[in-house]
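Input for the complex:
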Amino acid sequence: MRYLLLGVLVSVVLTGCTDKQEAVAPDISAGRTIAEANCVGCHGLDGRGAAPGIPHLAAQVSEYLLASLHDYQEGTRTHAALRDLTEAMSDADIRNVVGYYASLPPVKDTTMKETQETALSPFEKGKARAAVCASCHGEGGHSKVPGTPSLAGQQPLYFVAAVRAYLDGSRSISTMEATLRGLSNLDMQNMALYYASQTPIQRDPPAFGDAVAGEPLTARCGGCHGAGGVSHDAATPSLAGQDAQYLVSAIKAYRDRTTRHVDVMLVGSSDKQIEDIAAFYAVQKPKAAQDKPISAQELAKKCDRCHDPAVENPAMAVPKIGGQNKDYLLMALRAYRDGKRESSMMHNMSLPYSDTLIESVASWYASQPAR
Ligand code: HEC
Ligand code: HEC
Ligand code: HEC
Ligand code: HEC
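Predicted:
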């Protein structure tokens, strides 16, 4: 964010003091001749990248195309073929071929004809899938129905294991079965991520049980379920803030060895003790198992401060990236992040991004219509 502000500041200063370069109109038909001779094999005559990883040039911002060809010529941006080609070109050749490609209508990228759903992050896909669970488990997994567990903040591996246990019949509940059938492994993992990053809501004390009496009974539970029932192990469920009635039935199921199989030392506990344990865990302060991942759209809002083609940016040659080839976007973003392509601005923008985030923002822009 600091870098972003810096960038905006710099651009304001630059706008104030640069003279616009005297524009020489490009000779578009001379540009086409150069394109036919030298560029067609990779960029086509319609400006479409001929293979994954080759950028579309059609309708690109001409100042940006000019700047990048000069970068290849001077070697500040490296690509063997382009270095050789641009070395042999005069300023007028470069101006003309750029004029040609910039004048073309934007290409429709047929490789990204899927809907925007494919551009959603795993978190957003999980959120969409989880909508059908909300009638019982509550919006965001905050259950308000006694006997139905909250899923908000739950550990992701445990979540997946629990869903599988219902599906393979080792845990049974007929009411939920219809909703769970048909979930793929990927669905489960996406939902696990979504729920894990919901911040659970602290509960009011239940109508039964004595939390104070329950606390000492949980001494041996904390080693696995964490202090106060906030688990730090992805396969062990958090109990803090869980619905008390659900806790009672789950603990009883262990005690009575009816449905669940973990070898917990609950044998011999009385119903009263179990209610006290449940009351204790229900009112503990819960915590999300995972930080909320930033979505591709949220990220794109930051990028659009410079990359929105509707925003005039006379001080900077900012390329259009909507509808660009996805592999090329991936490559370019990784190159900035890893310092392999020079642009201090883009390097600073992409520095904190993981490969999955870069993947989702690249998919997002590739799936946008080119303008
Ligand atoms: C051998 C295939 C090939 C040929 C021939 C070729 N290019 Fe490229 N071009 C590429 C690739 C690959 C990239 C991306 C390289 C990179 O990552 O910097 C690229 C990038 C560019 C870029 C930067 C675009 C951007 O979005 O940053 C411009 C401009 C460009 N080429 C123009 C041309 C012109 C003009 C010609 C003909 C004179 C040409 N290229 C010939 C493969 C080619
Ligand atoms: C008709 C109501 C209902 C619907 C719809 C429903 N559930 Fe459930 N779910 C329950 C109940 C009740 C339980 C407690 C069952 C038990 O005691 O084992 C439960 C338990 C669970 C658990 C175990 C939680 C834990 O802490 O062990 C998971 C995971 C789960 N549901 C996931 C889902 C998902 C994912 C969906 C949507 C695809 C869904 N449920 C839809 C009622 C529902
Ligand atoms: C050795 C580690 C371990 C200890 C000790 C342990 N648990 Fe667990 N517990 C687990 C694991 C792992 C699961 C999930 C596996 C499963 O359900 O089969 C689980 C599941 C549960 C569940 C079900 C949660 C849900 O959302 O469905 C409850 C309730 C529970 N434990 C309560 C307790 C209590 C109370 C104690 C102490 C008396 C205790 N556990 C001690 C490991 C442990
Ligand atoms: C402060 C303005 C600014 C912001 C914010 C910004 N960019 Fe850029 N971006 C630029 C500039 C300037 C360039 C051209 C740099 C160069 O010449 O290599 C660029 C280049 C790119 C390129 C290379 C395109 C091509 O055709 O080679 C991609 C991809 C890109 N940006 C993606 C993003 C993404 C994704 C974000 C948000 C995470 C973002 N940018 C945020 C200014 C910005």
